[in-house]
Design a protein that fits this description.
The protein is mainly alpha-helical. It contains 6 helices and no strands. Helix 3 packs across helix 5. The longest helix has 40 residues. The protein is elongated.
């Protein structure tokens, strides 16, 4: 007697149909279209888990940029100044601070300005030494 796949196949189909419960029409009822749709949904979710990280980073940058421009700096200079001041804050935490704690963000901006001023003085002195 040959082995049949009856019970295993039914279990697999049941598992698949449980996953496609919220889908519409044949995408929920028909095996082949349900499989295709589930595969496609998986690809989209994989892609969009990565896109979500990019989208949030863009949002954080826009927020920080707006907060920094209100204080008279450019975003790129601000980020450079953060590195010079050895402040290890990421863009997410900076955007949260800018929104919910403006006083602290002002203090961070002041530290960045000082670091940028020292850096600019050092660069100017080096350039003067080269030309002299």
């Amino acid at each position: 007697m040959r082995a049949k796949k009856g019970a295993a196949r039914n279990k697999a189909k049941k598992r698949l149909f449980r996953k496609v419960e919220g889908f519409v029409g044949g995408r929920r009822r028909l095996l082949r279209t349900a499989k295709e749709t589930l595969l496609r949904a998986g690809m989209f979710s994989f892609r969009d888990r990565r896109a979500k990280k990019r989208d949030f980073r863009k949002l954080f940058i826009v927020r920080v940029s707006a907060a920094v421009e209100m204080r008279g700096l450019r975003y790129s200079r601000f980020i450079h100044g953060l590195r010079l001041a050895n402040l290890g804050l990421d863009r997410k935490s900076l955007s949260e601070i800018a929104i919910f704690d403006p006083e602290t963000f002002d203090a961070i901006t002041a530290l960045v300005r000082d670091a940028l001023a020292k850096h600019d003085e050092a660069v100017n002195a080096r350039n003067l030494a080269k030309t002299a």
